[in-house]
Structure formats: C-alpha cells, structure tokens
Amino acid sequence: YSLIFADPPYGETAQELLRDPTLPQLLANDGLFVLESAKRDALDFTSTWELVRGAVYGDTQVNFFRRKMG
User: Fold this and answer.
1) What distance in Å separates the CA atoms of residue 60 and residue 22, rounded to the nearest whole number?
2) SS3 at position 9
C-alpha cells in the first residue's frame, strides 16, 4: 500500500501498531503510514520507522512515518 492510515483507540494500541512486524511489509517502499494518537502518548518508533512529519491538534497527535530501509 502507498498509504496506511490508522486511528486506533488512544492508549497502548498506537504503540502496538508501531511494533507490529507485518505492518511495514504491507507498505510500499515510498509509502506513508499515518498514525493518530493522543498527544500524551510517547511513541517509540526508532527501530522500524522514520518520522517524516508530526503535528498536534488539541489532544491529538498525527505522525507520518516511512519504513526505514536497509
């Protein structure tokens, strides 16, 4: 897929998506994974994902990720 958008329930679910080993395999090399989560959720994405852009809207954060290559 060239775009995957996820708007899971706030809390641990967003982090679980970032840890899911199958999700990066579904994304095209130049694709984007857009993840909405609570602003208070500290997300650890360093091992698999590269943050392209992040924005905060009220209590919501929206992060745009690319799959790390290599």
Assistant:
1) 25
2) coil
Alpha-carbon span 50 to 70, nearest angstrom = 12
Asked if residue 60 lies in contact with residue 37, where contact means CB atoms within 8 angstroms, the answer is yes
Distance CA 57, CA 70 (A): 33
Name the pTM for this structure: 0.90
Distances in whole angstroms, Cα of residue 55 to Cα of each of 22, 36, 70: 25, 10, 27
Query: Is there a contact between 44 and 14 (Cβ–Cβ < 8 Å)?
Result: no
Q: List, for residues 16-45, the tens digit of each pLDDT value.
A: 999 999 999 999 999 999 999 999 988 988
Report the DSSP pairing between strands 49-57 and 60-67.
antiparallel
CA dihedral 37, 47, 16, 60 (to 10 degrees): 0
